[in-house]
Design brief:
The protein is of the alpha/beta class. Helices cover about 30% and strands about 10% of the residues. It has ten helices and seven strands. Strands 3-2-1-4-5-7-6 form a seven-stranded mixed sheet, with helices on both faces. A hairpin with a 6-residue loop joins strand 6 and strand 7. Helix 8 runs antiparallel to helix 9. The relative contact order is 0.14.
């Protein structure tokens, strides 16, 4: 299953009221949406028909989220489903995640693309291959290791994997205390020291298995229950959370 097929299934299962995308490129993923949407990209060339009510911003994500009311186009001001496929450098990916998270609820779903490079060359910060993920995988690892309230799931989609974040934390207000210390280590010269768990996808879930979780169809109902919503989301996805194992074998 490729990333667009996976994303299409998320639209179908979660019934999002709104959608936001960073990195539209040719518009293939944006074209999946049928709800009020926002697309952000400083340089795009749409080749697919877009049938949603969409605000397209030809600008950087940093500039877009610096605006007074970035989600003004959305009728609910909340992003139910987001797809981040912007600049393929770890610090950009993490900033994009933190910016989007400000406008989420615990029932929102954030998907980051190109999180499982297939080899060290694809994971280089300087692009010299046709297929290029950059080192954005580092952002997913930081969220998993430093934000225990989140559910961070690596997914074995073709060709270069995604990370799904459940139960996002808007109360963080776009600020991550560990960011500066992480940045000093994350911005490292090539070749990158890509962990084997990333290259071998030992933590990654099968996308079909993940999509079969009953948690997805519970999200629309949980949106109406603000009390303990994060705990309820974790309970809804207990089946897949239990499938994720650390390299040490611990869950």
């Amino acid at each position: 299953m490729n990333r667009h097929q996976f994303l299409q299934e998320l639209h179908r299962l979660t019934l999002p009221r709104s959608y936001l995308e960073i990195g539209m490129n040719k518009g293939l993923s944006l074209g999946i949406s049928r709800v009020p949407s926002i697309g952000i990209d400083p340089s795009f060339s749409l080749v697919s028909e877009v049938l949603a009510d969409v605000h397209i911003a030809r600008t950087t994500s940093d500039e877009f989220f610096a605006r007074r009311d970035p989600t003004a186009h959305l009728p609910i001001r909340t992003v139910d489903l987001a797809f981040i496929d912007g600049m393929h450098l770890a610090e950009y990916a993490l900033r994009d995640y933190l910016a989007v998270e400000r406008f989420t609820e615990p029932t929102s779903v954030i998907v980051l693309d190109d999180m499982l490079p297939r080899n060290v060359e694809e994971a280089s910060r300087e692009r010299h291959t046709e297929a290029w993920t950059g080192d954005v995988y580092k952002a997913g690892r930081l969220l998993r290791d430093q934000c225990p309230e989140l559910v961070v799931l690596e997914v074995d989609t073709e060709p270069t994997g995604v990370v799904v974040v459940l139960a996002p934390n808007a109360a963080r207000r776009g600020v991550l205390a560990a960011y500066d210390d992480w940045l000093e280590v994350a911005v490292a010269p090539d070749p990158q020291d890509v962990p084997s768990e990333i290259l071998l996808r030992t933590r990654a879930l099968d996308p079909v298995r993940l999509l079969a979780s009953p948690g997805w169809t519970q999200l629309p109902r949980l949106r109406r229950r603000s009390r303990h919503a994060r705990d309820r989301v974790r309970e809804a996805f207990a089946d897949v959370i239990g499938d994720v194992r650390h390299p040490s074998g611990e869950t």
